[in-house]
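seq:
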Amino acid sequence: MAAVDDRPATHAALIARIAALDVRAPYCDASVLTREVEALRHASHLAGFDAAVTVAHFIGTALLRGGNPGVHGWLSLLAQAIDCETQDLAACDLWATACAERLAA
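struct:
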């Protein structure tokens, strides 16, 4: 887990990585997007952004389903999950519910 003093810098770095991926996403195939999202999931896990870990798992599932999973919208959700002030189990459950509904649509 990132040290408390590192959390704002880690937050900013993750948000920047998501924004960069969002710009590149229309030009990437699913395997590249999957690797990038997995790297973001891992970094989020190490930094204690558990809600983002939950969202990243769902993005991976959407990408595995193929087609155009609306990556822009998913990446927006991922950024919102990192911005979420509450990173406890209850918050993760709420994010999982929102993602499951999005995935089912």
